[in-house]
Amino acid sequence: MKNLLTIVGERIRFFRKNRGLTQEQLGEKVELPQSYIGGIERGEKNISLETLERIVDALKIEPSDVLTSGKKRNTKDEILIDKILLNLQGRSPIEIEIIHNLIADVLKAFDNRNNTK
């Protein structure tokens, strides 16, 4: 099993790239040099909880998102799901409910189509 520094670094890299940020841009957001961000992503830097908090805030994720492991990560599905979650951020509960209902309707249509084949 990979060590925790490597897992955290890989997850930070995943979310940074999925948000279209360079290491330099993330570094500017959290007031750290690009080289330090690179060290974090490579699992070379033992970061403080304060630094982790600044990074997850800048990436708009939960701390638990960088601690998950055990299944294959960075898959196409995970990238798309993360992008959907990004699109939902800042939406009102009513808008989220409407989007949920639209998704449920689309999935029902897919299921019905697949059942008739």
Number of helices: 6
CATH architecture of the largest domain: Orthogonal Bundle
- Portion in strands: under 5%
Would you identify the CATH H-level superfamily of the largest domain? lambda repressor-like DNA-binding domains
Terminal Cα span: 43 Å
What structural class do the secondary elements suggest?
Answer: mainly alpha
Largest sheet: none
Could you tell me the number of beta strands? 0
Using only C-alpha atoms, the radius of gyration works out to 18 Å
Shape: elongated
Topology (elements, then pairings):
Elements: H1 4-18, H2 23-30, H3 34-41, H4 49-59, H5 76-88, H6 93-115
Helix pairs in contact: 2-3
Describe this structure in words.
The protein has 117 residues and is mostly helical. It folds into two domains: 1-70, lambda repressor-like DNA-binding domains (434 Repressor (Amino-terminal Domain), Orthogonal Bundle); 75-117. Helix content is 67%, strand content 0%. The protein is built from six helices and no strands. Helix 2 (23-30) crosses helix 3. It is elongated, with a radius of gyration of 18 Å. The chain starts with a helix and ends with a helix. 16% of the residues are buried.
Descriptors for this entry?
single chain; 117 residues; 434 Repressor (Amino-terminal Domain); 2 domains; 0% strand; elongated; TransReg_Diox_bact_type; DNA-binding transcription factor activity; Transcriptional regulator
